[in-house]
Amino acid sequence: MRTFAKPLGIAEIIQLIGGDYKGESSLVIKSVAQAAEADAQSVIFVDQEKYLQVSAASNAGLIICTEAYAEELGNHNLLLVEKPYFALMKLVSIWLHLETHSRIAEIHPTAIISPLAVIAEGVTIGAYTVIEAGTKIGKGSIVASGCQIGKNVSIGSNCHLYPAVTIYEDCVLQDRVVLHSGVVIGADGFGFLLDGAKQVKIPQIGNVIINNDVEIGANTCIDRGTIGSTIIGEGTKIDNLVQIGHNCLIGKHSILCAQVGLAGSTIVGDYVYLAGQVGAAGHIKIGDRAMIGAQSGISNDIPEDARCLGYPARDAGLMKRIMAAEMSLPDMYKAYRRSLKKEGD
Amino acid sequence: MRTFAKPLGIAEIIQLIGGDYKGESSLVIKSVAQAAEADAQSVIFVDQEKYLQVSAASNAGLIICTEAYAEELGNHNLLLVEKPYFALMKLVSIWLHLETHSRIAEIHPTAIISPLAVIAEGVTIGAYTVIEAGTKIGKGSIVASGCQIGKNVSIGSNCHLYPAVTIYEDCVLQDRVVLHSGVVIGADGFGFLLDGAKQVKIPQIGNVIINNDVEIGANTCIDRGTIGSTIIGEGTKIDNLVQIGHNCLIGKHSILCAQVGLAGSTIVGDYVYLAGQVGAAGHIKIGDRAMIGAQSGISNDIPEDARCLGYPARDAGLMKRIMAAEMSLPDMYKAYRRSLKKEGD
Amino acid sequence: MRTFAKPLGIAEIIQLIGGDYKGESSLVIKSVAQAAEADAQSVIFVDQEKYLQVSAASNAGLIICTEAYAEELGNHNLLLVEKPYFALMKLVSIWLHLETHSRIAEIHPTAIISPLAVIAEGVTIGAYTVIEAGTKIGKGSIVASGCQIGKNVSIGSNCHLYPAVTIYEDCVLQDRVVLHSGVVIGADGFGFLLDGAKQVKIPQIGNVIINNDVEIGANTCIDRGTIGSTIIGEGTKIDNLVQIGHNCLIGKHSILCAQVGLAGSTIVGDYVYLAGQVGAAGHIKIGDRAMIGAQSGISNDIPEDARCLGYPARDAGLMKRIMAAEMSLPDMYKAYRRSLKKEGD
């Protein structure tokens, strides 16, 4: 159960998310819960038949559901909407927004902020966070506790860095960027050349640029460009433990699921979907709106709108036929052996 | 070589781990070593023929071995047991336990602990650790240096958080939970919906519940539930760099090796074994005692006791036959081409 | 654009990296840039035809290129060399070296250093870093802010630990080791034994030894040995998010790309190349100079100089033929089904 700071009356709730209400007009709700744990001030939702029984037996003060379930749940206060899950999520987003905006900005006295850093008004900086010279943080941003922000970093407005984020020097975050804990932005790209008997380091002097409304999951790493920038496009969302190599260019509104790995200089288009553990070779291009199945290995350019799968990644339809045929491969092999023997006779 | 704070006489050692002793009764041991580095106060073990020679030549004060090697190693003090490795590991566990329990609990003066947190007796908190309001820590637990513990977190008794662990608000650890460095518990689940041209965030208001005796490796991420909880069952052990998505339910006493990735709402049973780099799609169920080979891609339910392998994951026996047949696939393909040509003639 | 602290005159530049100069003798350069952003004090390089036009139109003060492009770029100051990229990278390395060596060593007053630690001269230690008893740090090393260095750690000279690195007790770094942010060295190896109904922990009392000139990427984990050491050989370079299990022995000058995972006791030779997301089973040996393709799954020993690919990893030539044949597998399957039917007739 998640309880919110601001209780909402049913009239306010209807005003915020709409719907057709059947129940007590004095109802006040302050938490979101699962059916079994809900109490008289909780809201729950039902959008599948399998949850009907437990919901009917719930103590929830309010149930958001479709007209279809109104009768079975008739012993509760009901808010009838077309899409119960979305309606509830909209309500939750509003509640979270209210909480964030009632927060008072505060710079913790233990934060070490270089006198050469420029911190806008309304910025929150947590305990033991270190901010080095030349760095700028825009208004309304939150840099939580234990973060390490290097020199000449630019953080826009209304960004949220969770605890223990690290950003190397010269990197740029635009506005409303969210970085979860353990994220490392701007570590050196992985560039070495075998010169005789030794691996010689190629110096990495570029940076990382993260555009508006990007969110990046815990412990993900985005390396700085060798020269020039590694760029994450506006609105793209990246999950946990993802690796993005130096000089990658990721487009807008794309989705990179957990543990994806992109080698250096990979180009990813807009609205691309890379499922979990996908790997891509360097210096290739994945076209706009391409969707790549989990664990696929991409070694060549992928056209726009492609659906790909497998190792190596191939057209998803073909790959599914290959996978189906593989089930008979042992039998096909036996038949092949018999035919060889027959030929030999 | 690892030297322990408390030296043990041979009589104590025999009392603790048993065995049949042949050697000096005044022997005192205080370290565990490899054969080559051992000294007169070290114990080593031998359980394979290939280590006999180096062990015979070792300066080790004590050798734990089986009866079978007693003659070859007769120039040393010997403790004869059935399973030398387990006997030594039992001894080491006892030594480590003695060290931990002789430790004096201490809260470092630089730890920032909210006055609204509740810290039990005998808790150790390291330097520069931050503990926010509403959080409870049970007796005997250790939260090492540089940890970030959010609001309303519940940590049970005798837990051990190594340095630089992060826990987001509302998460729950029961007793004797071990979290290694860089672990992130409770970051937002990866939930976005493409609404027109933008990815819209689904708010993540659940939590993570980690049951008794769970151990989690370095830099592993366990995301909070969207609504409700992501749950790790009692006694389950998770290796480094693992990703566990929102609302996963992991059973008891299971083993998840390094770099495993589970998408959201995956259900994993009890005594399951997932080898390294396994990936599982969301909303599927992996039955009790299933064993899944390294790098397998699980896209469908796996029955109890199954042995699976490959991409996509299939019955291990079938998959091995497929893999064997693949070795001949180029030749089979040539034969197929010849047959096509013949038909065409 | 990266601007360096020390501007260099063209005469100095020629002395440092050689080449045939055509241009103003009074030229002074202080930044490296991409063509479009360059100004009169920037150097750029051209080594591909496709960058000629943008380079010709650039405001760069100096262009490093080959003789072949001298005419098209004749309106600029040119430094003609055989390998423009390497020449520029050499110059950048010298610039970075000058910056590092002009740095004044400083121990931040908030660093907590045990009185039982031994810190050499010229060591820099960042804010809020914790260094425990018995640890030694050699001259010229940098331990940046927010690092957690356990007991009895040995760090050699001229090492560079970026912010938020964690090292567990007893681990050893030789000289010139570079660890990027979020690296965890020496967490417990993943060893558990199912004893009846419970997973029993095998105590992990070894350490990690990292030899000279190793560089390790962000959020990579290297586990301590169970007994004995996990060892990384001289000059080996490891990328981000890599997992190295307990008691692995990695040779010299090898390359491990991002998200590689090695199970316990894997032996990797010298000059080995493991591409991204490769996984290796434990207790196997990968021979010197072997090159393993991305996402490969290694379950058996790999001979020296092998080129391998795939899951399971096979000779790369064979694997490419298998992959090519797979494209026809659905058709081969249909033919097989027809032949079965014919036989049945």
What does this structure look like?
The structure is a homotrimer of 345-residue chains. With 345 residues, the first copy, chain A, is of the alpha/beta class. Chain A folds into 2 domains: 101 residues, 3-Layer(aba) Sandwich (Udp-n-acetylmuramoylalanyl-d-glutamate--2,6- Diaminopimelate Ligase, Chain: A, domain 1); 209 residues, Hexapeptide repeat proteins (UDP N-Acetylglucosamine Acyltransferase, domain 1). Helices cover 17% and strands 29% of the residues of chain A. In chain A, strands 9-12-15-18-23-26-29-32-35-37-38 form an 11-stranded mixed β-sheet, covered by helices on one side. A 10-stranded parallel β-sheet of chain A has the order 7-10-13-16-19-24-27-30-33-36, with no helix packed on it. In chain A, strand 20 and strand 21 form a beta hairpin. Chains B and C meet through helix 3 and helix 5 of B and strand 20, strand 21, helix 4 and helix 5 of C.
Write the layout of secondary structure elements.
The structure is a homotrimer of 345-residue chains.
Chain A: E1 2-9, H1 10-17, E2 20-22, E3 28-32, E4 42-45, H2 52-56, E5 62-65, E6 77-80, H3 84-102, E7 112-113, E8 118-119, E9 124-125, E10 130-131, E11 136-137, E12 142-143, E13 148-149, E14 154-155, E15 160-161, E16 166-167, E17 172-173, E18 178-179, E19 184-185, E20 192-195, E21 198-201, E22 207-210, E23 215-216, E24 221-222, E25 229-232, E26 237-238, E27 243-244, E28 249-250, E29 255-256, E30 261-262, E31 267-268, E32 273-274, E33 279-280, E34 285-286, E35 291-292, E36 297-298, E37 307-309, E38 314-315, H4 316-326, H5 329-344
